Each structure stands twice: as structure tokens, then as C-alpha cells.
Amino acid sequence: MPVAAGERGRLEGRTVLVTGAAQGIGERVARTLRGEGARLVLADVQAAKVRAVAAELDAVGLTVDLAEEALVAAMAREAVAATGGIDALVNVAGIDAPFRAPSEVDAAHWDRLIDVNLTGTWRCIAALLPHLRERGGGRIVNIASICGLVPTPGVSVAYCASKAGVVGLTLALATELERDGILVNAIAPGSTGDTGEPIPARERAEYRARQPLGFGGAQPIADAVLHLLASSGDWLSGTVMNVSGGYWRGR
Predict the structure, then answer these.
(1) Which SUPFAM superfamilies does its entry note (predicted)?
(2) What angle do CA 137, 138, 140 make, to 5 degrees?
(3) Residue 79 falls inside a structural domain
(4) CA–CA distance from 131 to each of 118, 176, 180, 215, 232 (Å)?
(5) Catalytic residue among 41, 129, 149, 159
């Protein structure tokens, strides 16, 4: 989706690496950022899907598995080599919230969610951090979840713990990296209603009865990412943005 001649978006001249960009929130983030002039590198474990999205958006498409440190490091190197430099990293990739009782959470399930959602996010940051420091700064946005901040009955405790870890990682990194000109923030989305596992009709109706704003889809999360990457985010560091349509009301 090339930007028309004469139109300059809020991210014109910036190069952004988005993980989990083959579908859902990641794809919506990619389309929104491209619409504002960003040059993109899109990465996902779904090779064919991410290549298709990348081709449509005139972006670089890469394959990565967040569970494999060597593959994440290779992705970062390829992203830099293909573009000449990355200005921002948006960590969307992860395993969606599974519904599982605590008694059903075995070691394999726990390890998988922590490894991909939390450690995988860190692997991406660690792989790109030397480059961002060398460039003299940049932006990192981590997609956490409202499940990592407030009780969410039925959602796997492993998922909740992984996303709470992403919040903690964000706050710790923000403290450490501000002096390097690197701003680190997170977004805590609520249920989008149209990404991840399909929600049965009865549960959708019950959710709307509790939450007057209903499901917001992926666009509000993409808009929040844009806000953090554009000049509007120049004075934001260590922020956890509540984008939950009223599911969580507070700080």
C-alpha cells in the first residue's frame, strides 16, 4: 500500500520491524503504519502468509520462530541488512490466550507460553538492541494483554503470567534504556472479538452485556502503536496503555 505522491505520513522516513504480522493485530498494525509512510519489515512463523502481506505492503517479509534464539538473531540481522537500519520494533508475535483451568496447565503448556510470549519478546529485543544503541535511539512497543494486569477468569494462568512478564520487562527496560534514547512502552489490549480463537455467540452476547463498548477489533491497538511511534510518543516511556474498551478501568 504505497503512500501517494505528495502525501507525508507521521512515520515517513522511519523503518519499523513488526513481528506477528501475518494476521490479526500484527497485520493491522502493519497496514496502519504503512498508511502513515513507514517502511516495514514484517516477520512471522507463518512464512507464506507473512510474505503475502509483505508483498501487498511493499515490505520485507521474513520468517521467524520466537522459540528459537538463533532464528530470532538471524531475523534481526536480515532486517537490518535489507533496510540499512531499523528505527522501531513492535513485538506482536505470541500465542493467543487459551482457555484452560489451572488444573489443566501442565509443564509443557506453561513452558511453551512463557517461552514464546515472554522470552520470545525478550529475544527480539536483545537481538535488535545493539543496533538501536548504535543508531542512537529508537522505539520498542510490546503487546502485552489486559490479562497480565487484572483477573481474567478462564484464561490460562500461563498466558496471564507471560503477559504480566511482558509488562515487567517493559518497565525495567524503559528505566535502563532512556539514556540511550530508546523509548520502551507496552499496550494492554482487551478482547478484540475478531482475532485469535473464535468466540461463541453466547459468550459474545454475555461480554457485550458486561462491557457496553463491546469488542473493538484490532484497529484501536494499531492506533495506539502509531501514537507511541509517532512524535506524539516522544515523551512516553515505561507506559502501559490500557486499550481494553472499559474492561479495565483505572491507572
Answers:
(1) NAD(P)-binding Rossmann-fold domains
(2) 135
(3) yes
(4) 21, 16, 11, 37, 23
(5) 159
* Model pLDDT for residues 124-176, shown as the tens digit of each residue: 999 999 999 999 999 999 999 999 999 888 899 999 999 999 999 999 999 99
Q: How far apart are alpha carbons 153 and 130 in whole angstroms?
A: 39
Specify which residues 188 forms β-bridges with.
242
| Number of C-beta neighbours around residue 158 at 10 A | 24
- Taking the C-alpha atoms of residue 40 and residue 236, their distance in angstroms, rounded to an integer, is 22
The domain of 191 spans: 15-243
**Catalytic residue flag (residue 207):** no
| Number of domains within the chain | 1
Q: What is the pLDDT of residues 43-75, one digit of tens each?
A: 999 999 999 999 999 999 999 999 999 999 999
Nearest to 155 by CA among 186, 128, 187, 117: 117
Q: What is the pLDDT of residue 1?
A: 39
How many H helices and E strands in the chain? 8, 7
Angle at 96 between CA 77 and CA 22, to 5 degrees: 45
What DSSP string runs through 47-62?
Answer: HHHHHHHHHHTT-EEE
CATH number at residue 47: 3.40.50.720
Three-class SS of 226-238: HHHHCHHHCCCCC
Stated pTM of the model: 0.92
For residues 171-193, one letter each, b for 16 or more C-beta atoms within 10 angstroms of the residue's C-beta and e for the rest, the string is bebbeebeeeebbbbbbbbbbbb
Give the Å distances, CA to CA, from 141 to 8, 24, 111, 221: 23, 17, 24, 11
